[in-house]
Amino acid sequence: MNTLRIGLISVSDRASNGIYQDLGLPALEEWLTQALDTPFELEKRLVPDEQSMIEETICELVDERFCHLVLTTGGTGPARRDVTPDATLAVADREMPGFGEQMRQISLNFVPTAILSRQVGVIRKQSLILNLPGQPKAIKETLEGLKDEQGNTRVHGIFASVPYCIQLLDGPYIETHSSVVAAFRPKSARRDTNN
Ligand SMILES: Nc1ncnc2c1ncn2[C@@H]1O[C@H](COP(=O)(O)OP(=O)(O)OP(=O)(O)O)[C@@H](O)[C@H]1O
Ligand SMILES: Nc1nc2c(c(=O)[nH]1)N[C@H]1C(S)=C(S)[C@@H](COP(=O)(O)O)O[C@H]1N2
């Protein structure tokens, strides 16, 4: 009954106005499909960089669609119209500062401009909400981390911590494909699985 529900929000003026094709939602969906062993349902939204619209969309996905996880992409930088973190904080019950800190740290392994992202992680009701940068490649980089040529993890992505966080919020028990990203939980929180 407690199916994992994930909200995806692509925040982009140009994609939402049809100036270019949105690559954010497909990149998010593709990564989740590869990473998750647990079945999930998606709610997908494409919105412009308007704070009120981003806030409304997050609230709709959390309060009416009962998403356990909401991932945004885009609008986290310093430009005037980059307001995704501001919208996310405005509707948050609690901030989870470790996610923002860790995402920037991970991204520094890929781009020196990682520091320009103001991305945050927050909790609203039952839902964990995470901001990812707008470059479609940043989605995989941030969620999965860095691997060496043999596929061994060099830097853990933040998704390693997401299943346990959602478990602590009384959400479903999420299992991942460890070849993509291994979910970390304390032993006492693990179910009888191969983790
Ligand atoms: N949804 C998207 N689809 C495809 N490419 C994107 C998308 N969002 C961002 N990008 C790419 O990543 C870059 C950085 O993303 P950012 O969120 O800063 O967008 P932006 O420059 O404010 O433009 P816009 O909001 O119009 O997408 C963009 O300039 C664009 O090249
Ligand atoms: N992993 C990762 N993080 C990244 C990037 C990236 O390409 N990969 N781009 C950086 C850049 S150039 C900017 S300006 C900020 C904010 O991007 P956004 O406005 O598209 O959200 O994210 C940064 N973080």
From TrEMBL:
Q: Which GO BP terms, alphabetically?
A: Mo-molybdopterin cofactor biosynthetic process
Its pathway? Cofactor biosynthesis; molybdopterin biosynthesis
**MoaB/Mog domain residues:** 7-153
In Pfam terms, one family for this protein is: MoCF_biosynth
TM ranges are none
Stated EC number for the protein is 2.7.7.75
Q: Which InterPro entries match?
A: MoaB/Mog-like_dom_sf (IPR036425), MoaB/Mog_dom (IPR001453), MoCF_biosynth_CS (IPR008284), MPT_Adenylyltrnsfr/MoaC-Rel (IPR051920)
Q: Which UniProt keywords apply?
A: ATP-binding, Molybdenum cofactor biosynthesis, Nucleotide-binding, Transferase
Q: Which Gene3D superfamilies match?
A: MoaB/Mog-like domain
Which catalysed reactions does the entry list for this protein?
A: molybdopterin + ATP + H(+) = adenylyl-molybdopterin + diphosphate
| A molecular-function term among this protein's GO annotations | ATP binding
The record's listing under PROSITE patterns reads: MOCF_BIOSYNTHESIS_1 (PS01078)
So what does this one do?
Answer: Catalyzes the adenylation of molybdopterin as part of the biosynthesis of the molybdenum-cofactor.
Q: Which family does it belong to?
A: Belongs to the MoaB/Mog family.
Q: What is this protein called?
A: Molybdopterin adenylyltransferase
Coding gene?
Answer: mogA
